[in-house]
Amino acid sequence: GENAARLWPRWAEVCGKLGVDTERRQEWWQDLERRHREPQRSYHTFAHLVELFDHMDANQAVVQDMPAVTLAIFFHDAVYDPKAGSPKNEQDSAVLFDKFGQEALPAGDPLGLVKGELIAKVRRWIVQTATHKTAESDDEDCRLFMDFDMGILGSEPERYQRYCQMIRQEYQHVAEPFFCKARGAFLEDFLKSAREGKRSVYATEVFRSRREHRALENMEREAEVLARRLRSCSLPTRALTE
Predict the structure, then answer these.
(1) Closest by alpha carbon to 141, among 45, 67, 49?
(2) pTM higher than the cut 0.90
């Protein structure tokens, strides 16, 4: 598809830069493409990766380690089973990336050192997308990558609404009242922390200045919609008892 056509050159380029041979490059591409086309995915597809790369392009002047961020984008949702949930998906995606790193990246010179550091860094970032929380010790690349992944939250309201519908689709195995309650609680909790100044959506100044306000507005609106949906779920049972 169109998204695969946009992503393949990036994959070929990063593999070329890191010395991944043609055969492995092709094998792993096919694996990533197959995974991102799985039927349980609605939002977590190649289209999501394209959006992250758009953010990376817009911020390329400040990204230090482009190959590391590129690999993190390609692998961060490689394993995605909504029934398994977080942090299992992120941990499994990190393990898959590790497998790629060990078998596809050449040992390098000095032997294994740079390769080991790259693998450890990208693994850590992928696992971190389970919470998107950053620490003082995290470098700017890590913060940017977290913000690229959260970029959708600060998008235009119509785009955010489509994102909500796609997430609901991925969780179609969860009954409506449970979904509304769980997602609503998550949003309320986040918004409360944000109002108290304990947490922000974004970790970098560039994303905060451009998207923080809109992200919080989008989340407020979604929380209200979920609360309404939850009330309408509860109505029939109340009617039955009267």
Answers:
(1) 67
(2) yes
